[in-house]
Design goal:
It is a single chain. The chain is α+β, with helices and mostly antiparallel strands. The chain has one domain: Nuclear Transport Factor 2, Chain: A. Helices cover 41% and strands 25% of the residues. Strands 1, 2, 3, 4 and 5 form a 5-stranded antiparallel β-sheet that branches. It is elongated.
Length: 153
């Protein structure tokens, strides 16, 4: 009787410990989805300050810092009236995450759909800092990988 009771307690403890990790991943995914929803809402309301609140101070994506991000998204404001972000899935590893999305920019004249992070990725890379998720960029200084002569075989 005691052995079966001990085994039962061990199984329950294992199940509870696995749920905690799953819950933290679910919570992180929900927070990131909320950020992406906020970005699409802020875009539709033409609230650039609302979008910029989600950028980490060290944002860097393909050689662009937050200033370039701001400039690029102001151009999107002028060109498109609506943004819909469809989250396909989110990869989380420790304090970093990558959101795979379809971003649909539309206006009366045109509609484009960007498959992120493949097409651009400026709102795909996240970093958790002091308990909050922020857009972080891919932290690369070059738009494409730099090929050095000694790397090419």
């Amino acid at each position: 009787m005691r052995i079966s009771y001990c085994i039962f307690i061990i199984i329950v403890a294992l199940l509870l410990s696995s749920c905690r990790e799953d819950d933290s991943d679910r919570l992180a995914q929900r927070e990131i989805r909320d950020i992406l929803y906020d970005i699409s809402t802020d875009f539709n309301l033409k609230d650039m300050y609302g979008i910029m609140e989600h950028l980490h101070p060290d944002y860097l994506h393909k050689g662009n810092i937050s200033y370039h991000f701001n400039d690029k998204w102001l151009e999107h404001f002028a060109r498109f009236s609506l943004l819909e972000i469809e989250v396909l899935y989110i990869e989380i590893q420790d304090n970093k995450a990558v959101a795979h999305t379809n971003n649909k920019f539309s206006s009366a004249a045109e509609t484009i759909i960007l498959h992120e992070p493949e097409d651009n990725g400026d709102v795909s890379y996240f970093y958790r800092d002091n308990g909050a998720w922020y857009l972080y960029g891919n932290q690369a200084w070059a738009k494409k990988g730099i090929k050095r002569s000694y790397d090419v075989k």
